[in-house]
Amino acid sequence: MNRASPMGNAPAPPGAGAFLQAPDARHLLGLEGLPRDTLLDLLESAARYRDRLRAHDPPTGELRGVTVCNAFFEDSTRTRVSFELAEQRLGAMHTSFSVSGSSLSKGETMLDTLRVLTAMHVNLVVVRHRSAGSTAFLARHLEAGVINAGDGEHEHPTQGLLDLLTLSDAWGGRFEGRRLAIVGDIAHSRVARSAIFGLTTLGGEVVLAGPPTLIPAEAESLGCTLAATVEEAMHGADAAMALRLQRERMDSGLLASLGEYSRVWGIQRERTALMKPGAVVLHPGPMNRGVEIAPDVADGVESRVLKQVENGLAVRCAVLARCAAALTEES
Ligand code: CP
Q: At 36, which helix (H) or strand (E)?
């Protein structure tokens, strides 16, 4: 990845910043405020892990002696499984916790549940929760390192990193002067926020497009530009990211109909032709085919959806190794 930048080692531009705290390498709570060199180090480390995965290198013992608990208070396929595989590959002792069948149904709080887990000598917790700020709250109250696996509408930093690695592959390692169009439900998207913080820190541009009811009020203060239409956003872009409509986080009445949404805002084949030659299409998953992305685009030559998944495993190896190393340095 190219490190020369007029921006030096500047932090990400300030956004809402409600949960921003001084970076502590034990934790990964968000990409907001992470210095450029930290982002690049993580991406380079992830690329090395990916080489090892592709070469079918045997699992390593880098995390031997480290115990990790994956605490998922919300559903997940990609994030949870890739953290579990990364922990196994690095030789950590690990366990996974999900709400179903837990003592949360008996009234135990999230913090008490996490205190119970860390009392069992868990060193790192990987947490997904529907409440924005939950992982920053836990980081203030637990001895363990906390890795944010998606907290409400706030951030999904490992998704942001895997998106950056995928873009770096497509863009020859240069982010400066490149433009990503993010289309859809920006207002409810922690994926969009992490991508915005990461890419703008590395010198890229982000243009947002979506129904006005799904564009957050602070979009421009996040350092993005707004486009009135999906065509305007994708015209001349180096990549486009389609976002899932997050109906679980929406109040009613924000959308007229899924059919109209698809027609007006969907990433469809003819719209991809507006981008630069060689531009790529990303989707964090899970996809709603035929709604935010047409099936022939999801499976088309420009799609990097499964590359994102592969990069997710490598990124989670890099993040676990970084957080575990910081724990070791402290002790
Ligand atoms: N992109 C993402 O976070 O997917 P999961 O919800 O399956 O983890």
A: helix 36-54
Pick the CATH number of 36-156+310-330 from 3.40.5.10, 3.40.50.300, 3.40.50.1370, 3.30.420.10: 3.40.50.1370
Phi then psi for 261, rounded to 5 degrees?
Answer: -60, -45
285 lines ligand 1 (CB under 6 A): yes
Residue 221 has pLDDT above 60, yes or no: yes
Q: Return the best residue to mutate from 72, 76, 190, 311 for the ligand 1 pocket (most ligand atoms within 8 A of CB).
A: 76
Q: What are the two backbone dihedrals, phi and then psi, of residue 270, each rounded to the nearest 5 degrees?
A: -65, -25
Identify the CATH assignment for 157-309 out of 3.40.50.1370, 3.90.550.10, 3.40.50.150, 3.40.50.300. Answer: 3.40.50.1370
| Residue 79 CA, ligand 1 centroid: distance in Å | 5
Q: How far is the CA of 185 from the centre of ligand 1 (A)?
A: 16
* End-to-end Cα separation, the chain, in angstroms: 32
Ligand 1 midpoint to CA 150 (Å): 8
Q: What is the pLDDT of residues 42-85, one digit of tens each?
A: 999 999 999 999 999 999 999 999 999 999 999 999 999 999 99
The residue with greater pLDDT, 282 or 254, is 282
pLDDT digit string, tens, across residues 268-324: 999 999 999 999 999 999 999 999 999 999 999 999 999 999 999 999 999 999 999
User: Which residue from 94, 134, 133, 132 is spatially nearest to 111, judged by alpha carbons?
Assistant: 134
Report the b/e string of 222-241 with b at 16+ CB within 10 A.
bbbeebeebebbbbebbbbb
